[in-house]
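2024-03-11 09:14:02 DEBUG pipeline.ingest accepted 1 chain
2024-03-11 09:14:02 DEBUG pipeline.ingest length=264
2024-03-11 09:14:03 DEBUG pipeline.predict start
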Amino acid sequence: MGTRMQEHKNQEAEVKVKSLQKALGVLNCFLFRPSLSLTEISEMMGIYKSNAHNILSTLLSMGYVEKDAETGRYRLGLGIYRLSKAMDSEHAIDRIAMPIIRELANSVSESVVLCLPQGEDVLYIAGEIPGLIGFSGKPYFVGYTAKMYCTSSGKAMLAFMDEAERNRALPEKLEAQTEFTITDRAVLDRELEEIRRRGYATDHMECVNGLSCLAYPVCDESGKVLASLTITGPSPRIESANTPFLVQELLRCGKKLTNLIRGN
């Protein structure tokens, strides 16, 4: 009797472990594509749609995935971001970057953000708003995402990716976010070439009307893109007689951050 009860408990434990493995496997699917349908997840995992739906429902309720109300597609949620922020690493890039972000924001009197690549998007992970130095909360934009192709942050990173990585980060169709968004891949490719030449990226209201930005790509010793450092603000201020000074300070602080990350 005791042996059978123990075998039953072992079987229950095995089922729970397998369920956990499947849930983690679903999350890992997003390493390959930033946005997935229920069918795609089911096929990638080799499980029934009903099982995939049950797992996604649980992850959705915990904030680990989000569901687009219009398309029904899933993507990683802010719960994953909160977990990553909880990692106690002295070498976390945002921790290293924060003093430089503040230095740049103070110097140019504009908002400064640090972004990471996330599939086809940029993820805003840290920032500073002038006048709120020492602010105990977090700037409104931290934790948000935007499309790579229509932001200076994203274009700075796209320009220094290898071709395969860049193709994975660009959707087949470049949807217009504003009337200024570049939607022609050939035009975008020419701009990325110019960004590589001058060392920084710009966007003129390509993501948000009235907002312009300048961004610097942060790369490791091998040239792999890690992040981008960005000055962002109202277009009349960013695109003005003050632009050369903004670029000068962006390049100075961007190079400083790159050297810190590389241990120089």
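2024-03-11 09:14:41 DEBUG pipeline.report Residues 2-29 form the longest helix (28 residues).
2024-03-11 09:14:41 DEBUG pipeline.predict end
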